[in-house]
Amino acid sequence: MITSEVLSDLTPIETPKAEPIRMRTLVHLRWFAIGGQMAAVVVAWSMGIGFPKTPIILLIAASITMNLWLFLRPPKRTSAGRAVGQLSFDLVQISTLMALTGGMANPFALLVLAPVTIAAASLNARQVLALGLATVALISVAAVFGVPLREPGGEILRMEPILALGHWVALVIGVVFFAGYAHRVTAELSDTSGALFATQMALSREQRLQHLGGVVAAAAHEMGTPLATIKLIAGELADELRDDPDLHADAIALRVAADRCAAILRSMGRAGKDDLHMRAAPLRAVLEDAAQPHADRGPLVEIHAEGPIVRRDPAIIHALRNLIQNAVDFAESRVVIETQVTQGALVVTVRDDGPGYPVQLLSRIGDPYLTRRAEAQRGSYEGMGLGLFIAKTLLERSGARLTFANGGPGAVVSVRWPLDRIRAEDRIALAHNPNFEP
């Protein structure tokens, strides 16, 4: 029962999906925009600049009405569709204001980039592309059909055609640059966040598996006494039932079964205690532990390791296991794990005889979600990414530095620790033995 509960904790957990953007954030941003628009109208009015006041006031009032409606009836959750609708409303409102206040001659025309930039930081690429194209179209309409501003004397404020064209080109470039840059940065941050979540889950599972060894050890200890009682009673019954061959044979079989159960529990108990209490182990034992799940997957895994007693850390074992798994996935027939101990460092090298890393990806290996393919294909490294990111993160937290290269033939990854960060003492001095007065 306990084991089932522990194993149930090891089921995969998906990264929680957040809202694209909070509606409250959009409302706050719109209040700032409304304040700026009203201030611009008041300043222009006080300077005597001529512009169509009634349509502009109605547009600002529409934004105020939208915000009040969202304040009185806020949605429980912001969907991507709602966010697109709100940003589209802002885009149309700002573009219309720009068209009514001089078009390209309006010094505040740059603010038309705000909705698409916000969209790029919170929505998917298709939605951002749609808003970007709409922004370019509305900018073009405002440039062609913009209502010119008038000076206090009634003269039209005009911009030279070449400057108006340059302003239009600058706004279009701004749409592409700001939207593309914001979307790329947000996507990378999201990938890193998801990969770190996966790293934490991987380490948590590894620690739970080791804790499961402690549960097994405890179960073996608790069941030892009742098994000994069964064995004793079975032996006494066998002695008393010598006159009945059938019952005597059953008693002997019961005692043999009890002996077998006791032997199994002793073996499980030793393994469990090793998992629970062993904090240090020989370097070769740690590497064998990491390579064991991939030993029978096809390619031959060779371990040439001589080294000191090292920390038996679940994070290190899991990370090395990921590196070995990646090598086995792409090896033709052989994976070699070698170690080298220098004056102040320990180096573990994992090499395979596969096709090696693509040259164009060498500088990016270890980044999360290096490619978008769901599975790796044998014969290329296009499917790797998250596993290597998890391994790199866990090993760097232990003080190691990783290098990825080609040669040997195939892919080569080297993990280098300072000896004082990885070495562990195999003998620890006993504490002071206190004296007890009789």
Give the SSE layout.
Layout: H1 2-8, H2 23-46, H3 53-72, H4 80-100, H5 114-120, H6 125-145, H7 161-240, H8 245-277, E1 280-282, H9 283-291, E2 300-304, E3 309-311, H10 314-330, E4 334-341, E5 345-352, H11 386-397, E6 401-406, E7 411-418, H12 419-422
Parallel strand pairs: 2-4
Antiparallel strand pairs: 1-3, 4-5, 5-7, 6-7
Helix pairs in contact: 1-7, 2-3, 3-4, 4-5, 4-6, 5-6, 5-7, 6-7, 7-8, 7-11, 9-10, 10-11
Major beta-sheet overview: 5 strands, mixed
Mean pLDDT: 77
**Element order: H for helix, E for strand:** HHHHHHHHEHEEHEEHEEH
Strand order of the largest sheet: 2-4-5-7-6
Low-confidence stretches: 1-17, 271-277, 372-384, 428-434
Kindly provide the radius of gyration, computed on alpha-carbon positions and rounded to a whole number of angstroms: 35 Å
Specify the structural class: alpha+beta
Whole-number tally of structural domains: 3
Proportion of helical residues: 55-70%
**Proportion of β residues?**
5-15%
How many beta-strand segments?
7
Question: What overall form do the CA principal axes indicate?
Answer: elongated
First-residue to last-residue Cα separation = 45 Å
Q: How does this model look, in words?
A:
Keywords: ATP-binding, Cell membrane, Kinase, Membrane, Nucleotide-binding, Phosphoprotein, Transferase, Transmembrane, Transmembrane helix. Helix 4 runs antiparallel to helix 5 (114-120). Strand 6 and strand 7 form a beta hairpin. The protein has 12 helices and 7 strands. The chain folds into 3 domains: 23-199, no CATH class; 200-278, no CATH class; 281-422, 2-Layer Sandwich (Heat Shock Protein 90). The chain has helices at 2-8, 23-46, 53-72, 80-100, 114-120, 125-145, 161-240, 245-277, 283-291, 314-330, 386-397, 419-422, and strands at residues 280-282, 300-304, 309-311, 334-341, 345-352, 401-406, 411-418. The strands form 2 sheets. A 5-stranded mixed sheet has the order 2-4-5-7-6.
